[in-house]
Specification:
2 copies of one chain form a homodimer. Chain A has 341 residues and is an alpha/beta fold. Chain A folds into 2 domains: 7-120 and 313-317, ATPase, nucleotide binding domain (Nucleotidyltransferase, domain 5, 2-Layer Sandwich), CATH 3.30.420; 131-304, Nucleotidyltransferase, domain 5, CATH 3.30.420.40. Helices cover 37% and strands 20% of the residues of chain A. In chain A, the strands form 3 sheets. Chain A has a 5-stranded mixed beta sheet with strand order 3-2-1-4-8. A 5-stranded mixed beta sheet of chain A has the order 11-10-9-12-13. In chain A, helix 1 (43-61) crosses helix 2 (99-107) and helix 8 crosses helix 9 (270-288). The longest helix of chain A has 25 residues, at 237-261.
Chain lengths: 341, 341
């Protein structure tokens, strides 16, 4: 018996944008839509915008919401069942909000909620760069640095909070992190920390840089991944210095995790990771090398393959069951033992 | 049908001693023996001493070697099948040696070889302090700092080299480790690194300490765990300073691993860990606390419960099948949120 094709929705809730996608059983994207994440109001306003983004995506796919077998959501913050607590980058979201229930009532279909980074890691494992492997670490390099783990073919959540690679300590008595702790990888590699340091060195220490000029020219209010990329293309000295520092911290922290877990593969994603691309992924691999205990066989290192829609496609996997296509091997971006190009 | 009781041997091969035990199906120790690890010769001499230790243990248990259903071995170095490569603390053991085959020929029963730290972690999980948990990190604080992982109720070996928590980087551009790398936890917390630093500060910088006097009085050639413990009891300032530094590095590195894996429990074992005992285990928990990303629910922290024979009992588990007694909860030594005593 052949069961009829079912379709699912996926919503990736980010600090700056909400990305929605409609996917079929083969994980092909039938339609997608993007909206800006509200910067004021509260969780209910965010949920309303998520609903609207999903309806946009359904319209672009030419399907009714009623036709969806379910909707998956990848969210920042602490996931408690289908509620979300302490999504600190989102407006007024310090406490717990019943995000799943709210969307379920609005959309009239089953909604499941997962951690955004775990969901994106699961998507890379099932459908993207992680398909040839049974164990991997996803590193999402953006405003912060998030991590997701696949151990023995399964997402590993620990007691619910696994994957916080951004808060692996890379320097005892080091820099203060945006989380308030000392010496975290994110204090060196997170885009928010990098922007704060760039601003301080520029405004207080008089260091020259085009970073903030580029930001204004492109009508941004923050140093986005695109701004960093443009500054690097212009050989901006301060930008290069801060990116080098970030790459060093990433290589060190990722190598520490590899020494403990000996996973097969590391996948680099996130806004900065994807925007800076392969040359910087190779730099991260080279920065790992001096800290790998078994340096003769570093893990394979790949860029995330699903791009911008990875989070939404991964969210749809939360409701799409276990049917995952077979996994051909893919060439790695490079390992730390590759000669520099 | 009740199957007859079978008995097994276990051998824990350490850098200073070989510990052998005979255990029954209930994991009760029927007899044990200890011999010094040869400091010269080569792998074959070590294997001969291991055979002798097991024969001593069998004699003390009043059983024939022929009665053993199998023998398990926990060994340092890289385990490749039943061969051992690069056991660097052992004499002439840079290459690969067929340890399992050699012992099997000598003893006439099945021999299986596992990594010493993974075997000790599995023993704590199955029979010791880790029984109430499904995920845990074993930290063996001795000459070096070894680690073992239980994830979802199974030993996690990665590609064979998992658990190297001693080589988690705690300080970018930090101290040089005995492994040659920079900033590893073991460079601060390993007994070998601590002894080298104590010697340097004493001999080159003129720092006062009783550590080396105690070493000579007790006819030791190295600063053993007992020497460190005695110096601490005498309020030796340099010993206290170096132990504090080690505890800080341990807390930082363990917290990093907890942030990534969110395991339920940390078990502190190893020569120094067991010798210094609960007060220092509590100090490690407190040193973890400022670096835990989810600091409201630190993992439980226990001392290893199986003591000196844990490695040998764990080695016997390699051949004893899966029959493991049920697991009642035990009180933790303390968590980082306990008030200081």
């Amino acid at each position: 018996m052949i069961s009829p094709m079912s379709i699912h929705g996926g919503i990736d809730l980010g600090g700056t944008k909400i990305q929605a996608a409609i996917v079929d059983d083969d994980h092909d994207v039938l339609g997608s839509a993007r909206r800006a994440t509200p910067t004021s109001g509260g969780p209910a306003d965010v949920a309303a915008e998520m609903e609207a983004a999903l309806r946009d995506a359904a319209a672009s796919a030419g399907v009714e919401i009623a036709a969806l077998a379910g909707v998956g959501v990848g969210s920042p913050g602490t996931i408690e069942g289908s509620s979300v607590r302490s999504a600190r980058n989102l407006p007024g979201w310090e406490g717990s909000f019943p995000l799943g229930e709210t969307l379920q009532a609005a959309l009239g279909c089953e909604v499941r909620v997962g951690n955004d980074v775990q969901v994106a890691t699961a998507a890379e494992f099932a459908l993207g760069a992680g398909r040839p492997y049974r164990s991997l670490l996803g590193v999402f390099w953006g405003t912060g640095v998030g991590g997701g783990l696949i151990i023995d073919g399964q997402v590993w959540r620990g007691r619910g909070g696994a994957g916080e690679i951004g808060h692996v300590v890379v320097k005892l008595d080091g820099a203060r992190c945006t989380c308030g702790r000392i010496g975290c990888m994110e204090a060196y590699a997170g885009r928010a920390a990098m922007e704060a340091r760039a601003r301080k060195l520029h405004e207080e220490k008089g260091r020259k840089t085009d970073l903030f000029k580029l930001m204004r020219e492109h009508r941004r209010t923050r140093l986005t991944s695109g701004i960093w990329a443009r500054a690097l293309e212009r050989d901006d000295e301060l930008a290069a210095e801060l990116i080098d520092r970030a790459v060093g911290a990433l290589g060190t922290g990722i190598a520490s995790v590899v020494n403990v877990l000996d996973i097969e593969c590391v996948i680099i994603g996130g806004g900065l990771g994807v925007r800076l691309g392969e040359p910087y992924a190779r730099r991260i691999a080279r920065a790992m090398q001096p800290h790998l205990f078994i340096d003769s066989r570093p893990p394979q290192l790949h860029l995330a393959a699903l791009g911008d829609l990875g989070g939404a496609i991964g969210a749809a996997l939360l409701v799409a069951g276990e049917s995952v296509p077979a996994a051909p091997a893919q060439p790695a971006v490079g390992s730390a033992t590759d000669p520099p190009r």
